[in-house]
From TrEMBL:
Classification via InterPro entries: SAM-dependent_MTases_sf
GO molecular function: methyltransferase activity
Lineage: superkingdom: Eukaryota
Pfam families: Methyltransf_23 (PF13489)
Spans through the membrane: none
A GO BP entry: methylation
Keyword annotations of the record: Methyltransferase, Transferase
Upper taxonomic lineage: Eukaryota, Metazoa, Ecdysozoa, Arthropoda, Chelicerata
Name this polypeptide is given: Putative juvenile hormone acid methyltransferase
Amino acid sequence: RENSAHEKIDYQVLDIDSDVTEFLTCNGQFDRVYSFYCLQWLQDPGAALKNIASLLLPGGQCLLVFPATHQPATIWSRLAIMERWEKYSEILRKHIPKSHYMKDKEVQLAYMSTLLREAQLSPSIYVLSRLVTFDGWSEHDIIGMHMGVVPINALVTNEERHQLLEDITTLVREVHAPDCDKSLFRTYIIMATKPKS
């Protein structure tokens, strides 16, 4: 809004995994819905996909891009099992999507296919590619990003924040190491259509 104001753009907040009835009443349905790197913050994107389908006119399309598995969730799951972060483990785990625990690519594809079918969305493009978000980033920038998105950052005390930075730095060096298997981190790229009838 502040940096990208435009007379033809109306900015509104919509919680995509909650009831969208009021939003639909005010705005109606859409020909297209685009979502880039948002659905990974939901533990189970099934409700969000159903809401996206309800936002679409019959024959409408959506383009969705979001990680199935990603490095931040790996770091959160590792933090959650550390004794010193035990009191925050539920918060950390709450932000890890179900697909993150599925290591097999075929299982991740089958899982998302089921969710799309349940939402009555028919994919015409359905790809699970290697996540390339962090390619070319410096270690300093990666650590800063992880500190910025870790769900407990605003909850920890000042004393804990120093330890959190140390732990995240250690985990970043493991998870983003040059010899780490980057193929484990994958992104869903989906273009799907709502049936016309």
